[in-house]
Amino acid sequence: MNIDLGTIWRVWFPLVAGAVALGAIFALGPGPRGPARDLGLAVAVIGITGVVVARHTLGRSFSIRAKATALVTTGIYSRIRNPIYVSGMFYLGGVLIMIKRPEMLIAFVALIPMQILRARREAAVLEEKFGDAYREYRKRTWF
């Protein structure tokens, strides 16, 4: 595995930062201890793992704003078109389960349509650049 500075910032830094934040929330955060907290940790770990795998798979094609440098259809992208969005929601959902703050559920639910809009904007950019190849890819993947 070739690890350059870009890989460190794109893959390893988010993994470490997310894991540290998750550990701190689990150990020190609000909310009762018990099975729900353990379940929340498991869901959040699945989420952060998905984000890291997706960012690693994207490689240099990752960007904050939608741009079409390459059509990545391998790895996790062979099943899910937007695994970073989906995995990020798992991470946040797991944190919400851990801290048991029902009022935060409103913010979580509000993020769902925002993620859908982001995915649609990204899809438009990719469809414009890759045309039929992207449309075929969309047919065989979820979200």
Walk me through the structure.
The protein has 143 residues and is mostly helical. The chain has one domain: Four Helix Bundle (Hemerythrin (Met), subunit A). Helix content is 70%, strand content 0%. It is built from 5 helices and no strands. The protein has helices spanning 5-28, 35-58, 83-99, 104-130, 132-139. Helix 4 (104-130) crosses helix 5. The longest helix is centred in the last third of the chain and has 27 residues, at 104-130. It starts with a helix and ends with a helix.
List the SSEs and their pairings:
Blueprint: H1 5-28, H2 35-58, H3 83-99, H4 104-130, H5 132-139
Helix pairs in contact: 1-2, 2-3, 3-4, 4-5
What is the third-level CATH name, the topology? Four Helix Bundle (Hemerythrin (Met), subunit A)
Number of helices: 5
- Approximate helicity band: 55-70%
Which segments are poorly predicted (pLDDT under 50) over 5 or more consecutive residues? none
| Gap from first CA to last CA | 29 Å
Name the CATH class: Mainly Alpha
Sheet having the most strands: none
